[in-house]
């Protein structure tokens, strides 16, 4: 017997009230949620089903309360080691959007400028025939798929198999290119292997947390709450190093502000201090480190068909030490706006052998025209001091999306990646061909289009067919206004799979109704290499269909049925078991599905029934086999690389015509482009629209009042937003900040499409704008 209606109403009211209190609590200083959201609430006959959160890369465990086939509540999973029962305000409300009145429930096909409701099988027939005819007429590189770090592991796997193994094109990239590519390139160049070497348990061991350009209180609130707990319980210290004052700054022990782009110089100055003061761990460096430098003056990727290849050149320690002489704290102080005293303070933390330090970063370091370099420099600091791959000691790159690691990076939905390794490596192609049962010659040996270049190719007319899944590029791409007209042309056939209408679906020729998170089974991989599984919890409305199954159906219709022999009922399990073959062994073994079904995830490498929490350390990692304490087995000689990387100015910086820096990012209430969270009433009410933050002195000098509409103008476009003064965040003088979640205020029409030439990740954090009253 189900719970009485009054009981359910009480439950929902309690959830809403708790969430409102949680949201209010975020105002200062950070995010600390108590696991009391359900106290006194009658469950009735709710069935609680486990899974990971739909939103950020933290990968919180959730329990979804299902009653009469409906998801009526969400709570944090107390058995999850990630969040220990805690959730942020987005997590509490994540199921409230799926019943939105504008939910896409049936396929829509554009005919004579109007969308016509179409049976899903008929729509998939059309997608397959258009994809096939485009290949026949224009060649395989005229079709493309653009997917997401929000795709599940099976969804990413079948997309990669279709494009690279069946069709034979590397025209597959994903929106993780916009957020995690620099982290990938940084790991690969320094360690020869991707993904962090530590885990979230580092938080319980570290004496210092140093956040580099990362507002964790809003972007990764549950992890920040765990840091605050350690601050309060045992005196651990949080140091905020950023370009603007945020909620993270006010909750930290110390906040240090730097001029945009100069994080490169400050990191080098820290390394200078470590060596100059004798704080280097000489034994660790001698045994486990090589030194290299690469090309400099490498451009900013703004030209069409931009290509670049870094050329590592080995150097010795003395050459590296000489290079650092240009980065004394006193020299760097002059242009970074970080005092020599503060630089020396940061260096003293890293250099103290008796203090454990974890460095955290996310978009501030990655969305950077020198993002790969900046990641390398962070590793330099930890490698010089030997503070790496140990509990409480390590550099930790946080991901922004729920499966940017598990899907984009591990499965390989980047143009250059395969489910193991890269397309450029003959051995990696051979392994993929063997598992996929295709001729090895079918898998191209060269990458094609990364995300920005993919849409430039659409604009040029080189790509005639593009299928986007779980992604909203006409809100999220830099310099967005360039691509909208191209996608509207009849010369490019656009397919969009999504849960809700978006500005991207507005230009589609076919709109496919996707299943939401809990309406299908799936797997995600989070920031700490934790793979998590969930079973389907509720039925989706209408003809909504999992993205993986839609891809499989299109593949079969195109004649590739023998490569996609999966059943509709068990395709997630069948795909995951096939995918695990790529990673067998101690270096990257994936946990069996039966383990993931029982537990709240497992960290890879999963060896002998146990997660490997710290990689490259022989004490914890069974893959270490060189007889030494540490083995960086991604590199042939087992040694990591310290890179000589210089400071270079930003691609564009303020001048007389455009005197302000523009920085973009997120807020805690909204997820990326807002297509989900803006349909959750309590979150939409909390932050109903975007805004532009000013330093109060800049606003006063310009006569701008709080709430007054202003126009933000760059060399590429403009956007009208209300001014925000002395509210949530405080930019430095000469800087403005805009969240990008609002499709009605497209700040990415303004941003610059310059990118890191190595990772190809755009820089959303720095471009020049002017401000006018609207």
TrEMBL record:
<feature type="binding site">
    <location>
        <position position="520"/>
    </location>
    <ligand>
        <name>Mo-bis(molybdopterin guanine dinucleotide)</name>
    </ligand>
</feature>
<feature type="binding site">
    <location>
        <position position="90"/>
    </location>
    <ligand>
        <name>Mo-bis(molybdopterin guanine dinucleotide)</name>
    </ligand>
</feature>
<dbReference type="GO" id="GO:0045333">
    <property type="term" value="P:cellular respiration"/>
</dbReference>
<feature type="signal peptide">
    <location>
        <begin position="1"/>
        <end position="34"/>
    </location>
</feature>
<feature type="binding site">
    <location>
        <position position="367"/>
    </location>
    <ligand>
        <name>Mo-bis(molybdopterin guanine dinucleotide)</name>
    </ligand>
</feature>
<dbReference type="GO" id="GO:0030151">
    <property type="term" value="F:molybdenum ion binding"/>
</dbReference>
<keyword id="KW-0249">Electron transport</keyword>
<protein>
    <recommendedName>
        <fullName>Nitrate reductase</fullName>
        <ecNumber>1.9.6.1</ecNumber>
    </recommendedName>
</protein>
<dbReference type="GO" id="GO:0051539">
    <property type="term" value="F:4 iron, 4 sulfur cluster binding"/>
</dbReference>
<dbReference type="GO" id="GO:0016020">
    <property type="term" value="C:membrane"/>
</dbReference>
<feature type="binding site">
    <location>
        <position position="56"/>
    </location>
    <ligand>
        <name>[4Fe-4S] cluster</name>
    </ligand>
</feature>
<keyword id="KW-0479">Metal-binding</keyword>
<dbReference type="InterPro" id="IPR019546">
    <property type="entry name" value="TAT_signal_bac_arc"/>
</dbReference>
<dbReference type="InterPro" id="IPR006657">
    <property type="entry name" value="MoPterin_dinucl-bd_dom"/>
</dbReference>
<comment type="function">
    <text>Catalytic subunit of the nitrate reductase complex NapAB. Receives electrons from NapB and catalyzes the reduction of nitrate to nitrite.</text>
</comment>
<feature type="binding site">
    <location>
        <position position="748"/>
    </location>
    <ligand>
        <name>Mo-bis(molybdopterin guanine dinucleotide)</name>
    </ligand>
</feature>
<keyword id="KW-0560">Oxidoreductase</keyword>
<dbReference type="InterPro" id="IPR010051">
    <property type="entry name" value="Periplasm_NO3_reductase_lsu"/>
</dbReference>
<feature type="binding site">
    <location>
        <position position="472"/>
    </location>
    <ligand>
        <name>Mo-bis(molybdopterin guanine dinucleotide)</name>
    </ligand>
</feature>
<feature type="binding site">
    <location>
        <position position="179"/>
    </location>
    <ligand>
        <name>Mo-bis(molybdopterin guanine dinucleotide)</name>
    </ligand>
</feature>
<dbReference type="GO" id="GO:0042128">
    <property type="term" value="P:nitrate assimilation"/>
</dbReference>
<feature type="binding site">
    <location>
        <position position="547"/>
    </location>
    <ligand>
        <name>Mo-bis(molybdopterin guanine dinucleotide)</name>
    </ligand>
</feature>
<dbReference type="GO" id="GO:0050140">
    <property type="term" value="F:nitrate reductase (cytochrome) activity"/>
</dbReference>
<feature type="binding site">
    <location>
        <begin position="497"/>
        <end position="498"/>
    </location>
    <ligand>
        <name>Mo-bis(molybdopterin guanine dinucleotide)</name>
    </ligand>
</feature>
<comment type="similarity">
    <text>Belongs to the prokaryotic molybdopterin-containing oxidoreductase family. NasA/NapA/NarB subfamily.</text>
</comment>
<feature type="binding site">
    <location>
        <position position="88"/>
    </location>
    <ligand>
        <name>[4Fe-4S] cluster</name>
    </ligand>
</feature>
<dbReference type="InterPro" id="IPR041957">
    <property type="entry name" value="CT_Nitrate-R-NapA-like"/>
</dbReference>
<dbReference type="InterPro" id="IPR006963">
    <property type="entry name" value="Mopterin_OxRdtase_4Fe-4S_dom"/>
</dbReference>
<dbReference type="GO" id="GO:0005506">
    <property type="term" value="F:iron ion binding"/>
</dbReference>
<keyword id="KW-0408">Iron</keyword>
<keyword id="KW-0411">Iron-sulfur</keyword>
<dbReference type="InterPro" id="IPR050123">
    <property type="entry name" value="Prok_molybdopt-oxidoreductase"/>
</dbReference>
<feature type="binding site">
    <location>
        <position position="765"/>
    </location>
    <ligand>
        <name>Mo-bis(molybdopterin guanine dinucleotide)</name>
    </ligand>
</feature>
<dbReference type="InterPro" id="IPR006311">
    <property type="entry name" value="TAT_signal"/>
</dbReference>
<feature type="binding site">
    <location>
        <position position="175"/>
    </location>
    <ligand>
        <name>Mo-bis(molybdopterin guanine dinucleotide)</name>
    </ligand>
</feature>
<dbReference type="Pfam" id="PF01568">
    <property type="entry name" value="Molydop_binding"/>
</dbReference>
<dbReference type="GO" id="GO:0009055">
    <property type="term" value="F:electron transfer activity"/>
</dbReference>
<feature type="binding site">
    <location>
        <position position="60"/>
    </location>
    <ligand>
        <name>[4Fe-4S] cluster</name>
    </ligand>
</feature>
<keyword id="KW-0004">4Fe-4S</keyword>
<dbReference type="GO" id="GO:0006777">
    <property type="term" value="P:Mo-molybdopterin cofactor biosynthetic process"/>
</dbReference>
<feature type="binding site">
    <location>
        <begin position="664"/>
        <end position="673"/>
    </location>
    <ligand>
        <name>Mo-bis(molybdopterin guanine dinucleotide)</name>
    </ligand>
</feature>
<dbReference type="InterPro" id="IPR006656">
    <property type="entry name" value="Mopterin_OxRdtase"/>
</dbReference>
């Amino acid at each position: 017997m189900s719970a009485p209606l009054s009981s359910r109403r009480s439950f929902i009211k309690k959830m809403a009230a708790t969430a409102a209190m949680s949201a209010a609590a975020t105002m200062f200083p950070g995010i600390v949620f108590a696991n009391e959201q359900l106290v006194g609430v009658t469950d009735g006959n709710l069935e609680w089903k486990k899974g990971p959160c739909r939103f950020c890369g933290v990968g919180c465990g959730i329990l979804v309360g299902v009653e009469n086939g409906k998801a009526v509540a969400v709570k944090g999973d107390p058995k999850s080691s990630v969040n220990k029962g805690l959730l942020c305000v987005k997590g509490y409300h994540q199921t409230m959007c799926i019943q939105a009145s504008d939910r896409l429930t049936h396929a829509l096909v554009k005919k004579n400028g109007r969308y016509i409701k179409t049976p899903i099988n008929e729509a998939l027939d059309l997608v397959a025939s258009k994809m096939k005819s485009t290949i026949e007429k224009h060649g395989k590189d005229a079709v493309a798929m653009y997917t997401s770090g929000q795709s599940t592991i099976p969804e990413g796997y079948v997309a990669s198999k279709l494009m690279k193994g069946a069709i034979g094109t590397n025209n597959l990239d994903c929106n993780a290119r916009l957020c995690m590519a620099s982290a990938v390139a940084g790991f690969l160049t320094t360690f020869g292997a991707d993904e962090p070497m530590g885990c979230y348990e580092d938080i319980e061991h570290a004496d210092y947390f140093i956040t580099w350009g990362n507002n964790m209180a809003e972007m990764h609130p549950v992890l920040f709450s765990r840091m605050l707990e350690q601050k309060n319980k045992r005196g651990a210290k949080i140091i905020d190093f950023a370009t603007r004052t945020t909620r993270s700054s006010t909750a930290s022990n110390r906040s240090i502000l730097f001029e945009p782009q100069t994080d490169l110089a400050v990191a080098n100055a820290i390394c200078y201090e470590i060596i100059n003061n004798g704080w280097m761990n000489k034994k660790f460096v001698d045994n486990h480190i090589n030194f290299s430098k690469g090309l400099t003056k490498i451009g900013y990727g703004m030209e069409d068909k931009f290509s670049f290849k870094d050329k590592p050149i080995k150097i010795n320690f003395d050459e590296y030490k000489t290079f650092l002489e240009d980065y004394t704290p006193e020299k760097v102080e002059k242009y970074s706006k970080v005092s020599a005293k503060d630089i020396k303070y940061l260096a003293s933390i890293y250099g103290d052998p008796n203090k454990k330090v974890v460095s955290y970063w996310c978009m501030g370091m990655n969305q950077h025209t020198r993002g790969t370099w900046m990641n390398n420099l962070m590793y330099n600091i930890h490698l010089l001091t030997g503070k790496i791959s140990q509990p409480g000691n390590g550099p930790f790159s946080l991901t922004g999306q729920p499966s940017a690691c598990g899907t984009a990076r591990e499965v390989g939905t980047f143009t250059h990646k395969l489910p193991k390794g890269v397309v450029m490596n003959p051995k990696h192609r051979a392994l993929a061909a063997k598992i996929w049962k295709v001729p090895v010659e079918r898998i191209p040996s060269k990458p094609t289009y990364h995300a920005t270049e993919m849409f430039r190719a659409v604009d040029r007319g080189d790509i005639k067919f593009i299928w986007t899944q779980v992604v909203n590029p006409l809100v999220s791409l830099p310099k967005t206004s360039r691509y909208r007209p191209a996608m509207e042309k009849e010369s490019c056939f656009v397919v969009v799979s999504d849960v809700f209408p978006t500005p991207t679906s507005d230009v589609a020729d076919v709109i496919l109704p996707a299943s939401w998170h809990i309406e299908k089974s799936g797997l995600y991989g989070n920031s700490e290499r934790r793979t998590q599984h969930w079973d389907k919890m509720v039925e989706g409305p209408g003809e909504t269909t999992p993205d993986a199954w839609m891809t499989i159906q299109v593949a079969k219709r195109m004649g590739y049925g023998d490569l996609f022999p999966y059943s509709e009922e068990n395709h997630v399990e069948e795909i995951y078991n096939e995918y695990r073959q790529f990673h067998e062994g101690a270096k990257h073994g994936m946990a069996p599905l039966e383990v993931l079904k029982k537990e709240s995830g497992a960290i890879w490498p999963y060896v002998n029934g146990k997660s490997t929490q710290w990689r490259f350390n022989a004490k914890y990692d069974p893959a270490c086999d060189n007889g030494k304490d540490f083995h960086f087995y991604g590199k042939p000689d087992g040694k990591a690389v310290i890179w000589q990387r210089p400071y270079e100015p930003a691609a564009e910086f303020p001048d007389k015509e455009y005197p302000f820096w523009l920085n973009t990012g997120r807020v805690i209430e909204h997820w990326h482009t807002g297509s989900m969270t803006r349909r959750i009433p309590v979150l939409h009410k909390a932050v109903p629209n975007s805004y532009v933050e000013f330093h109060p002195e800049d606003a006063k000098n310009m006569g701008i009042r709080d709430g007054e509409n202003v126009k933000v103008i760059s060399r590429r476009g403009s956007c009208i937003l209300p001014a925000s003064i002395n509210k949530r965040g405080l930019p430095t003088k000469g800087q403005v900040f805009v969240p990008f979640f609002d499709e009605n205020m497209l700040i990415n029409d303004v941003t610059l499409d310059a990118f890191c030439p190595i990772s190809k990740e755009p820089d959303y954090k720095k471009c020049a704008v002017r401000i006018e009253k609207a």
